[in-house]
Amino acid sequence: MKSVEALKKDVAPMANPALKFKRVLLKMSGEVLMGDQEYGIDPGTIERIAQDVKEAVKLGVEVCIVVGAGNIFRGVSGASNGIERVTADYMGMLGTVMNALALQSALEKIEVPTRVQSAIPMDAVCEPFLRRRALRHLEKGRVVIFAAGSGNPFFTTDTPAALRASEMNCDALFKGTKVDGVYTADPVKDKDAKKYEHLSYMDVLTNDLKVMDATAISLARENSIPIVVFSIKQPGSFAQVVQGQGNYTIVSDE
After folding, report:
1. φ/ψ (deg, to 5) at 60
2. What is the CATH class of 4-251?
3. Single pTM value for the model
4. 229 - beta bridge partners?
């Protein structure tokens, strides 16, 4: 059995001035956590994602995370089934807290110090969102998971992800998806689909490329935060892409 000192060394960040991105926000949909299931959280998938985050932290990357709740409850779907839209959206926000706590548990299980901050105060289970405290956590090498969106209905979790990335002064917003970038069409359905290596924010908005919702794209553009789209399903890809390696599409005006 490893000593406490050895365990701490396992996740101790390395000084790495060559890193392409030193502070990033990772945005994942709730569906990513389902694995091959139709609903809920797949233990193997969440453990593998936690390991990927650990590898990035060991490189010296400061990581914060926003995760959706589509694996538990989606506000728009709830509204279409007769629940009032505002109520449905709040239910979706609670789902993001559940996913955040599950991810925190998986990370702490492998000795990665993690804090969950919720836009809806619930002191019994997590911290309230406080920008200065979140920044301090990141500076100390802790992973911060932002839950409950922005605390407001009528927004997807894409917009709070762009908002938190701006507030945390992130170098980039990483969108973890099922495919390794942005394509001209769905590569699963169209074998002739071509992958974009680089897009401008206006390319995404004008061509309605569904990278993230329009509000999130506009917010990232206004704050000059690149959006990096990569495959979260590929083991080890997160650590590769934060170093500027592997397969991804980058959205920026540079």
Report:
1. 105, 10
2. alpha beta
3. 0.90
4. 175, 249
